[in-house]
Amino acid sequence: MSEHDSSTNLWHQLLESRISRRSALKGSVAAAGASLLPLSLETASAAPTDAPSAQARGNAANTRPPFSPIRPSTADDLVLPRGYRYDVVRIYGDEIAAGQPFGYNADFTAYLPIDWLEGGQSSTDGLLWVNHEYPNPLLQHGNLAGPKTPEQIAIERTSVGGSVFRVQRQRNGRWAFVGDSHNRRVTGFTTCRLTGPVAGAAGVRGAVEVSGSVGNCSGGITPWGTILSCEENVDDYGAPLVQGGFGYGWDQSYVKEHQGWVTEVDIYNPSSTPLKRTAMGRFRHENVAIRLSANNRVVAYMGDDRNDSCVYKFVSDGSYDPKNREANMKLLETGKLYAADFQNGTWLLLDYASQNALKNAKAANGTPLFRDQSDVLLNASGAASVLRATPVDRPEDLEVHPLTGHVYVALTNNSAHGNFHGQIVRMIEENNNPEATSFQWDFFATGGPQSGFSSPDNLIFDPYGNLWMVTDISSSRTGRGIYAFQGNNAMFFFATEGANAGKAVQFASGPNQCELTGPSWTPDGRTMFLSVQHPGEESSGMDKLTSHWPNLGGDPMPRPGVVAISGFPGWRRR
Amino acid sequence: MVDLEAIIDDYLHVIVRTRPWTKQREEELLLAFCEWFYEQPAASHAITAVLPATTEQYAQAVGLESAEHDELNTAFYTLFLWAEQQYAVPHNPFSADLVA
Q: Which domains does chain A have, with CATH numbers?
């Protein structure tokens, strides 16, 4: 079955019915029911919240943004509110360890206190993990026509994956890089190990050890303090570069099935091998949002970042033990993978043994689409399609509300369907049980001029339940046409409770043609780490650079990197 | 059959990573073509309905310069190259004019 059949219009029918129903409940004029698209954005206001918990009510005062909003901007800089500043911590090319440079296109960040394994919570001294998503041949070595030399391929291949390094807040409040034995790179060459059902399977050519981790987009943090780095767009590295072809043209021996997984990295152990968790499925992984069930099973919410693709959930077989980190390191090896059916509000189990539809599914040439569970996991999106999970509009980031347990999903956009500005929806598990097989869902916020934001991407909550979001408008369209209202890609704050729930308040604006990505907090909430990814991305030549950020020492070359933002008041401990 | 605009959108998401220095130009060419293409009465607006004869018809209709016509055909060649891998498009109708 094609992944792009007529059921892709189902999502828009569901969206329209939600908007219309809410309009009817509010007594306002019904949304424009005559046409499905564009959506009737003016009536798609914030979802009514559940009755807040006592804890949430107590935090109502903390639903006000801790800053004065900024206006949309097209300045080639990271623009912040008054009283906030940023330190450039690392940019592309800075050294992490001897001979190991900070990679390209920084994305997901995660701060873990240096003393965490001993029970500490240091907010001034920690390890920072940063993903590196993909290279830029023009800005890294300048060979645009190919074929690339081995040296040029090595430049690109070592610039993806991830970096871990120590950071400290100095006495003057500035954040600085620190040389440390924990500092290391994971690159497109690093030996990684496949774990779970696909390890050694025919679909990965029998491999258990594989070379590299690429396409590292967003990610997550496990309760036992490891990093989950998500491999998203991995199909194009071995692809031809002939005639200005579409791929990176690295190596015809590149095996794309060795990539496209959630990769777990123990940043506290510099000699550890990154582990690819195949039980969580292979698709264009954006991020992982973890929640523990009442049985302490690890539940991981994930999205397949592509137009008309699905939302997934993984439930571990084993249970988390806060006293046994070594045992916890095996929890993501086995479990159940589900895909979301939004029409019926159910989670569909992607299990070859119990799903006849998967056993009977045929490819176009009549051969079985799946031979076993490893094939199902390798082609999770195909399996989801067979089971009629709901394709939605580019599910990017998912995060779990810290107070309610609701799952917020950023649906960035889908211009092919006329959804130019995207939405954020909430999923509410039955009985608030993350192991449930059914759920409800509703809108939280809808993009467009009426709301002030477009194309939601990464999300993060603060402990009060406020949502912070960064946008991903296409570089060539920021500040222009229907996107002009927002200026450059930006960061927004949303309260999720109270009268202003779902209203976007702008916190930051990024440099030209960048997207801001991967926000993460220190435990005290006084610092946010944030990546500035692909400034000047669509520069057509070295003499036509569209950004010069960060412009350190007058260097005109745009360099993606990670910053530390200070000025936040911090979080009051209850 | 996959709609042309849907495939172009996915394709642009690829080349913005792999060849970003050409993406804006290819986007301009392809989306301008789409604007004309979708106005034409046709049984299908699938990618498979786009042939060199179609871009020739478009070039004449809008008065496209020869160099720009070549640019458009090159963009379609690469789009089909990618679509062959992703969407099982049966062949690349733009490959005859270009040396692989």
A: 6-566 (2.120.10.30)
Q: Is the dihedral of CA A106, A110, A116, A122 positive or negative?
A: positive
* pTM, full prediction: 0.93
Report helix, strand or coil for A44: coil
Check CB contact under 8 Å for A538 and B16: yes
Q: How far is the C-alpha of A267 from the C-alpha of A260, rounded, in Å?
A: 21
* Spatial distance between the Cα atoms of A46 and A130, rounded to a whole number of angstroms: 33
The predicted-structure confidence for A234-259, as pLDDT tens digits, reads as follows 998 987 666 667 889 898 778 999 99
Judged by CB atoms closer than 8 Å, whether chains meet at A236 and B17 is answered as yes
For A29-44, the pLDDT digits (tens) are 333 222 223 333 333 3
Q: Which residues contact A143 (CB under 8 A, 6 or more apart)?
A: A137, A149, A152
Q: Which two tokens stand for residue B7?
A: 């495939």
Q: What is the ipTM of this complex?
A: 0.89
Give the sign of the dihedral formed by CA A369, CA A371, CA A372, CA A378: negative
Which residues of B have a CB under 8 Å from any CB of A? 2-3, 5-6, 9-25, 27, 74, 77-78, 81-82, 85-88, 98-100
Cβ partners under 8 Å of residue A441, min gap 6: A342, A345, A425, A426, A427, A428
pLDDT along chain B (100 residues), means of 10: 86 90 93 94 87 96 96 94 84 73
Please report the sign of the dihedral spanned by the C-alpha atoms of residue A477, residue A478, residue A479, residue A484: positive
Question: Is residue A215 classed as helix, strand or coil in its secondary structure?
Answer: coil
